[in-house]
Amino acid sequence: MATLIRDKYEAHKAEVNARFDQLKANEEELNRIFAEIYNMVGEVPIEVEDKYVSVARIFDTADEIPASFKGNNYVRTKCDEIVSLISYAVGCMFGRYSLDVDGLVLANQGDTVAEYLAKMPDPNNVTFMPVADDVLAITDAAYFDNDVCALFERFLVAAYGEETLEENLRFVADALSPAGKGTPRDIVRAYFQKEFFADHCKTYKKRPIYWLLDAGKKGSFRALIYLHRYQPDLMARIRTDYVLPLQQRYASMLDNIQNELETVEGRRRAALVKEQKRVTDQAAELTKFEERIHRLADQMIAIDLDDGVKANYPMFGDVLAKIK
User: Fold this and answer.
1) Are 324 and 194 in contact (CB under 8 A)?
2) Contact 159, 128 (CB under 8 A)
3) pTM of the model as a whole
4) How far apart are CA 254 and CA 257, in angstroms?
5) Pairing assessment for the beta strands 136-138 and 222-226 based on DSSP bridges
6) What's the rounded Cα separation, in Å, for the pair 151 and 32?
7) What is the mean pLDDT of residues 207-229?
8) Is residue 37 in a domain?
9) What mean pLDDT, rounded, does the chain reach?
10) Does residue 48 sit within a domain?
11) Which of 38, 165, 283, 286 could form a cystine bridge with 250, CB 3.0-4.6 A?
12) Quick check: 180 pLDDT over 90?
């Protein structure tokens, strides 16, 4: 049955906020009881300030958070909840989580889809399959089957139903950027391109388990990989299956732009010249990235999860995004 994320969010918010109110009331009742026991009524505070209640409280927007909550590390917004949903979705794309079973699924070094299927209650009928090659592409458009935004839509369909896809995308986009420009799909893609990795690093205290390959500021190519599924040949496969085909695509795009420029004038020509500059810059950036990842691919770097992110991440140099 189709489900609206809005309804799930409202139910979750009501449950979380009721828990907050109950804990606050319980703490105040305990304060009152102890004040009476020790004859200190009127001498010690009974009321518990909002900022000292140590469970989550959800507000729709940051503007709605009262001053009394300043300093409370458990306050969350609708945007925070949607960011968590997106993080879970990415986990399902990699097989770390599954819609079919609770808890962690793929979390051992070198795990593959075979291990994922072995843990499914019905391997022949999996609700949402993870990617086979441990790569989620993040580009300007859906150039690859493993495009993270296309996969996110498939996740929404698997989890909430196809009938509510468009409304659920709008809800997600509005939560991420209430005043955002463009379609819901534009906003979701912009989030993956510009903000997802930063949010992930914040959640994991600068020890990310999803690593971001980043060609540079022009955004010619980005991709997420899952640390626990890393194999020594992964960089070679990314170069062969993603970087080289994307170089060919950029070359083809530039050829098409040049051909059209010979036949158009006015605004269309101006728009094409602008697009030509953008694609040219991206193609140049991707060429330099290909050289960097080629060197890594030849090294067939092996990692040890026990060494941790701090030791393993620097081994891949400037192919990976900086952790901030």
Assistant:
1) no
2) yes
3) 0.94
4) 5
5) antiparallel
6) 53
7) 97
8) yes
9) 96
10) yes
11) 283
12) no
Q: Which helix (H) or strand (E) holds 21?
A: helix 5-37
pLDDT (0 to 100) of residue 41: 86
Spatial CA neighbour of 283 closest among 238, 230, 216: 216
Per DSSP (E only), the strands in the chain are 57-59, 75-77, 136-138, 210-214, 222-226
| Domain carrying residue 52 | 5-77
- H or E stretch at 249: helix 244-261
CB burial readout 11-23, b (16+ within 10 A) else e: eebeebeeebeee
Q: For position 42, what pLDDT does the model report?
A: 85
State the amino acid at position 50 in one-letter form. Answer: D
Look at residue 1 and tell me whether its pLDDT is greater than 70: no
Per-residue pLDDT tens digits for 57-104: 999 999 999 999 999 999 999 999 999 999 999 999 999 999 999 999
Q: How far apart are CA 320 and CA 208, in angstroms?
A: 12
Whether residue 32 lies inside any domain: the answer is yes
Query: What are the tens digits of pLDDT across the range 256-301?
Result: 999 999 998 999 999 999 999 999 999 999 999 999 999 999 999 9
Answer yes or no: are the C-beta atoms of 286 and 221 closer than 8 Å. yes
Considering the domain boundaries, does residue 61 fall inside one? Answer: yes
Structure tokens belonging to residue 128 = 């949402």
Q: What's the domain count of the chain? A: 1
Q: In Å, how far are 50, 53, 63, 71, 175 from 67, measured between CA atoms? A: 9, 14, 10, 9, 22
Whether the predicted pLDDT of 127 surpasses 90: yes
Compare 45 and 56 and report the one with higher pLDDT: 56
Which structure tokens are listed for 315?
């081994």
What is the C-alpha to C-alpha distance for residues 322 and 212, in angstroms, rounded to an integer?
9
